[in-house]
Amino acid sequence: SKLQKNLSELMWEHCGVIKNKVSLENGLSKLYDLKKASKEIDITINRNSCKKLLLTFDLQASILTAEATILSALKREESRGSHQRSDYPKMNINNNINYRVKMIENKLNIFTHQISPLNKDLQFIINNTSRVISFKNKLIE
C-alpha cells in the first residue's frame, strides 16, 4: 500500500545507516502522522477475503517496530557496531548497556539494562582469536 511505501522511505531517509538526532526526531514526527493515518484506513471484509484487514495489521505492526527502532536510536547517543550516529561518532566504552523497549499503557518506553561482563572462557576466546585483516574472498552475510 501507499502507507507501507511511505514507511519504508521514511525509515531509509531518517533512520538509515548513518543517523542523527534532528533526522531521527523528524522521522518520528512523520511516523506519528503515518500512525494516525493507519488508524483511519477503511477496512472492508467480504466473505471471500479479509486481505485488507491483514495488510492493515501488518502495516500497524511495522509502524510499531519503526517507532521502537527510532526511539532506541535516539536514546543510544554513541556509535556502536551497525548503529552509527553522525552527532555521536565515537563509541562510549563505559556505556555497556542494552536498550529495551516496553509498552506501558499503549506507549513505548525505552529502558537501559546493564550488560554483564563476559565470563573468563568467552573473554579468552575473544582475546585469542585472530583479527580479520581483509574480507577479500570471504562470504559476508
Structural class: alpha+beta
Distance between the termini: 29 Å
The average pLDDT value, as a whole number, equals 91
Number of beta strands: 4
H/I helix tally:
4
Radius of gyration: 20 Å
Biggest sheet statistics: 2 strands, parallel
Would you list the SSEs in sequence order as H and E?
Answer: HEHHEEEH
Percent helix range = 40-55%
Unreliable sequence segments:
none
Strand order, biggest sheet? Answer: 1-2
Shape: elongated
Proportion in β-strands? 5-15%
Describe what you observe in this structure.
- The longest helix is centred in the middle third of the chain and has 25 residues, at 51-75.
- The strands form two sheets. This protein has a two-stranded parallel ribbon with strand order 1-2. Strands 3-4 form a two-stranded antiparallel ribbon.
- The protein is of the alpha+beta class.
- It contains four helices and four strands.
- The protein has helices at residues 2-14, 21-38, 51-75, 120-127, and strands at residues 18-19, 84-85, 97-104, 107-114.
Secondary structure topology:
Layout: H1 2-14, E1 18-19, H2 21-38, H3 51-75, E2 84-85, E3 97-104, E4 107-114, H4 120-127
Parallel strand pairs: 1-2
Antiparallel strand pairs: 3-4
Provide a quick synopsis of the model.
This protein has helices at 2-14, 21-38, 51-75, 120-127; strands at 18-19, 84-85, 97-104, 107-114.
Structural features:
141 residues; alpha+beta; two-stranded parallel ribbon; two-stranded antiparallel sheet; 4 helices; 14% strand
